[in-house]
């Protein structure tokens, strides 16, 4: 991350625009602590630069501040600077307004457009709270998927649903740039949503099943499982024409489905529903006639 010396003696710029600079005061130990989400405990003294007027210090409270790296809990200059440190390291961070409190400042102690100097010490770091790497997310999601599949086999549909949802949440904010990783995640998301659709069909939550199937088809238009389950979900919602059209228009990919037999089943369900509705309406009218004659 170090990009060159600034005009300030012994300070090194941590970004191309020189918005935050660092001077090492004493070395730390261990690995660089730069994973977003890591819980850090930091001692600091903050002062205005160049006047040296101190506006805050954790040393006065004898208690380090606790933050999570890269989560927007502190000014950007801190997130950038702390990501270059090791446990036990002490450093000075020179932070310009763009990475500090900007033109608004932090009244009454920090005027607008202030350049700040922080003497910081990374007291401890807890990596257990850090965001998972892509490989870790894939491994965890695969484990959740396998657990969900086991619950599904034993008709524990509510538990299966929670497993699949937990797996999908791991990729909610993932922005992967490596093609191989992206393809792996995409296939996992397709499988998880297909499995989740099957769960929702069992739970008779047909709207949720439709949503899952449509997510799959947005990633893979020719996915046979999602197509078939979408037809089932439409049938469950009473959208019989949509269910039939889904099967008719995708015969070429539904090679393992007897499309004509499935369409026949849908028509029978539609006829049964129409018969039941007629009986219901007939009873309603009879009740009204009886009420009118009394």
From TrEMBL:
E.C. designation(s): 5.2.1.8
List the catalytic activities from the record: [protein]-peptidylproline (omega=180) = [protein]-peptidylproline (omega=0)
- Per its UniProt record, what InterPro entries does this chain match? FKBP4/5/8-like, PPIase_dom_sf, PPIase_FKBP_dom, TPR-like_helical_dom_sf, TPR_rpt
- Signal peptide annotation: none
The terms under GO molecular function for this entry are: peptidyl-prolyl cis-trans isomerase activity
Query: What are the TM regions of this chain, as residue ranges?
Result: none
Q: Taxonomically, which superkingdom? A: Eukaryota
Going by the record, the broad EC class of this enzyme is: isomerase
Boundaries of every PPIase FKBP-type domain copy: 37-126
Stored PROSITE patterns: FKBP_PPIASE
Entry keywords, A to Z:
Isomerase, Repeat, Rotamase, TPR repeat
Q: What is this protein called?
A: peptidylprolyl isomerase
């Amino acid at each position: 991350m170090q990009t060159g010396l600034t005009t300030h003696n012994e300070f090194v710029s941590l970004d191309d625009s020189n918005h935050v600079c660092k001077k090492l005061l004493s070395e730390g130990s261990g690995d660089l602590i730069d994973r977003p989400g890591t819980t850090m405990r930091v001692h600091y003294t903050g002062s205005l630069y160049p006047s040296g007027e101190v506006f805050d210090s954790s040393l006065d409270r004898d208690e380090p501040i606790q933050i999570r790296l890269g989560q927007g809990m502190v000014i950007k200059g801190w997130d950038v600077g702390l990501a270059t440190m090791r446990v036990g390291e002490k450093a000075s961070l020179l932070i310009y307004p763009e990475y500090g409190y900007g033109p608004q400042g932090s009244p009454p102690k920090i005027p607008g457009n202030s350049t700040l100097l922080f003497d910081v010490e990374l007291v401890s770091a807890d990596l257990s709270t850090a965001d998972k790497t892509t490989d870790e997310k894939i491994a965890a999601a695969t484990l959740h998927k396998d657990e969900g599949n086991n619950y599904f086999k034993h008709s524990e549909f509510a538990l299966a649903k929670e497993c699949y949802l937990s797996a999908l949440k791991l990729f909610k904010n993932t922005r992967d740039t490596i093609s191989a990783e992206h393809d792996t995640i995409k296939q996992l998301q397709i499988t998880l949503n297909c499995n989740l659709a099957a769960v929702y069909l069992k739970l008779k939550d047909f709207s949720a099943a439709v949503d899952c199937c449509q997510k799959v088809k947005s990633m893979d238009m020719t996915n046979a499982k999602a197509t078939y389950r979408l037809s089932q979900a439409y049938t469950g919602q009473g959208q019989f024409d949509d269910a039939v059209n889904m099967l008719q228009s995708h015969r070429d990919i539904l090679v393992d489905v007897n499309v004509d037999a499935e369409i026949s089943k849908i028509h029978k369900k539609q006829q049964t529903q129409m018969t039941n509705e007629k009986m219901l309406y007939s009873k309603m009218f009879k009740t009204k006639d009886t009420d009118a004659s009394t």
